[in-house]
Amino acid sequence: MSIILGDKEFFPTVGKIEFEGRDSDNPFAFKWYDENRVVAGKTMKEWLRFSGCYWHTFCGQGHDPFGPGPQRFAWNDANSAKQRAADKMDAAFEFFTKMGLPYYCFHDTDLIDEENSSVGEFEEKIQFITDIALEKQKASGVKLLWGTSNLFSNPRYMNGAGTNPHFPTLARAGAQLKIAMDATMKLNGENYVFWGGREGYITLLNTKMEREQENFARWLHMAKDYMRSQGWNGTFFIEPKPMEPTKHQYDFDTATVAGFLQKYGLSTDDFKVNIEVNHATLASHTFQHELQVAADNNMLGSIDANRGDYQNSWDTDQFPNNINETVEAMLVYLEAGGLQGGGVNFDAKTRRESTDMEDIFLGHIGGMDTFARSLIIADEILTKSKYTELRNKRYETFESGQGKDFVDGKLTLEQLAEIGAAVGEPEQISGKQELFENIINQYI
């Protein structure tokens, strides 16, 4: 099969990205990501399920609050929305195949400009572009990891979509939601994501928070029921984020989402989380923490891979390159058995000043190598070091005797108090944090 799927080659200076190993000086080659290498019983391709994101990679042009973007992409040159969409899809699938990405993701308005379309006009546009996407998927073998709907950029959603205090606006958002879900099913999408970009509040002075959350729960139930009624068996993901653009978003972090699902009867068999690294840090958590909370609650669905700038307090969406951070995350990832339905999606963008077409490839190569290298290191830590043994040792007093009775629920508070009184002052046990950190560095 030819790498170039469309009539025009948008990246003529870059060929298929191959694995050449860590000693290669070729910037357009993988140093660590060998998709066929087996780690912990599965290939890297199976473990990581890499995905390219449509929005940053093909829609963004490096703009920021202080001015338009300096990046110029040939797929944006056509005058008509449909031709721009078709060109953009040609470029996207050329990129996906050259990178060897097995999956991609999109918002509905990434695929084709909404402009001032009515619901019917926008649905016709989505039908047009998804017909092309379906053919591209068949020709390339690239699959849709998940779809979603942009219910936050258009000014009509300034007060939210599923939480909007104005019912006609909520209903308009529901129409757009259905179009995106139909497109996801048409393209055999394996999952569907809800990112509540404006599902929150700016001030509580004008907000009935309980009503908005109840409405959002109804929204999620309706969406789930609709796709299930169509025979779709994929997984729904909620993507936690604490703020930005709202002051407070209702999906603040993974623990908040877990409590929300439980309160409103939304099963974790249906709903899991799509964890973004930069969103974790905005919530004052580590990426590792968010993965662990998700794994502990049967909610570890998918990952948006990126990183933030440690000197900035906003969502910078840089490509991941922090080995320590990613190794610690991969320890949780491996112990949880990987993701439930999702993959590692590069919700990351080249910097505003990176204006060469090839920079898009370099960012993804580095990100894929970071995750691949971290997967190898984490597996070695779990199988060759004393990491697991040392961690288990901290809890060994709960494995037998009275500690085991406590775990098994055999003690009353009175009995526990008697044991505590008999113990006297317990011995001091070191947490050995420095040793754990040294083990990580040793294997890196």
Describe the protein in words:
By secondary structure, the protein is an alpha/beta fold. It has a single domain, classed as Alpha-Beta Barrel (TIM Barrel). The chain is 45% helix and 11% strand. The protein is built from 16 helices and 14 strands. The strands form four sheets. An eight-stranded parallel barrel has the order 5-6-7-8-10-12-13-14, surrounded by four helices. Helix 3 runs parallel beside helix 5, helix 5 packs parallel to helix 6 and helix 11 packs across helix 12. The model has no long low-confidence stretch (mean pLDDT 96). Its main location: cytoplasm. It catalyses: alpha-D-xylose = alpha-D-xylulofuranose. This is Xylose isomerase. Its EC number is 5.3.1.5. Its cofactor is Mg(2+).
Summarize the structure.
With 444 residues, the chain is an alpha/beta fold.
Please list the strands of the largest sheet in the order they lie side by side.
5-6-7-8-10-12-13-14
Order of helices and strands: EEEEHEHHEHHEHEEHEEHEHHEHEHHHHH
Radius of gyration: 24 Å
Strand content: 5-15%
**Overall helicity:** 40-55%
Mean pLDDT: 96
CATH-defined superfamily:
Divalent-metal-dependent TIM barrel enzymes
Shape: globular
Count every beta strand, where a strand is a DSSP E run of 2 or more residues: 14
Number of domains: 1
Structural class: alpha/beta
